[in-house]
């Protein structure tokens, strides 16, 4: 009898501890994932997350400003993100439609993240393209100034091809 009582108490204690962990992490799947932007890749980008996951972006570069733009891809789209970003602009417009699910911008040298679109949380299940469209070599100050002046779409600043063309892209599946 005593053995069963101890087992029940241990089980109850284990369940209580598990409930505390679930509450601390968000029992409905909510959690925060930090992604590092480096020249020219995303580090610690998870392959799959639960709906309700919030993203934070840090920038490990001393020179380049980076962004993490996430577009939900159409359900029937099977091409890789690499194939999609290499499409002609008019074809990309058919895939990357409307406002992105989120745009997080991180200045170089660990500057504070700027949440430009959305709140950093992915709530809708599906496959998302993750891309940095900032031109290679763009002046961070000029980019931020152009972004603050408003206007439609991304800031138009001088620079080379988008960081995505240098390999700064990925995907996340939200379940």
Task: Give a brief description.
The chain is an alpha+beta fold and 175 residues long. It has helices at residues 2-25, 81-85, 89-95, 140-148, and strands at residues 31-38, 41-43, 48-49, 53-59, 66-72, 102-106, 114-117, 121-122, 126-131, 169-174. The chain has a single domain (29-174), classed as Immunoglobulin-like (Sandwich).
Write up what this structure looks like.
The protein is 26% helix and 29% strand. It has one domain (29-174): Sandwich (Immunoglobulin-like), CATH 2.60.40. The protein has helices at residues 2-25, 81-85, 89-95, 140-148, and strands spanning 31-38, 41-43, 48-49, 53-59, 66-72, 102-106, 114-117, 121-122, 126-131, 169-174. The strands form two sheets. A six-stranded mixed sheet has the order 3-10-9-5-6-7, with no helix packed on it. A four-stranded mixed sheet has the order 2-1-4-8, with no helix packed on it. The model is unreliable at 1-28 (pLDDT under 50). The chain has four helices and ten strands; from the N terminus they run αβββββααββββαβ. The longest helix has 24 residues, at 2-25. The protein is α+β, with helices and mostly antiparallel strands and 175 residues long.
Give short descriptive properties of this protein.
175 residues; Immunoglobulin-like; four-stranded mixed beta sheet; 10 strands
Question: Layout of helices and strands, plus pairs?
Answer:
Layout: H1 2-25, E1 31-38, E2 41-43, E3 48-49, E4 53-59, E5 66-72, H2 81-85, H3 89-95, E6 102-106, E7 114-117, E8 121-122, E9 126-131, H4 140-148, E10 169-174
Parallel strand pairs: 1-4, 3-10
Antiparallel strand pairs: 1-2, 4-8, 5-6, 5-9, 6-7, 9-10
């Amino acid at each position: 009898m005593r053995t069963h009582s101890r087992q029940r108490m241990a089980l109850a204690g284990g369940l209580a501890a598990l409930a505390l962990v679930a509450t601390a992490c968000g029992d409905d799947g909510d959690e925060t994932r930090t992604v590092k932007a480096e020249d020219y890749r995303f580090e610690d980008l998870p392959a799959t997350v639960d709906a309700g996951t919030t993203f934070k972006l840090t920038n490990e570069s001393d020179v380049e400003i980076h962004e993490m733009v996430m577009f939900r891809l159409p359900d029937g789209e099977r091409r890789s993100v690499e194939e999609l970003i290499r499409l002609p602009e008019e074809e990309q417009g058919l895939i990357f439609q409307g406002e992105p699910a989120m745009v997080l911008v991180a200045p170089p040298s660990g500057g504070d993240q700027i949440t430009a679109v959305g709140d950093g949380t992915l709530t809708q299940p599906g496959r998302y393209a993750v891309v940095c469209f900032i031109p290679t070599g763009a002046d961070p100050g000029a980019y931020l100034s152009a972004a603050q002046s408003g206007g439609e779409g991304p800031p138009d600043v001088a620079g080379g091809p988008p960081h995505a063309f240098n390999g700064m892209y990925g995907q996340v599946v939200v379940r």
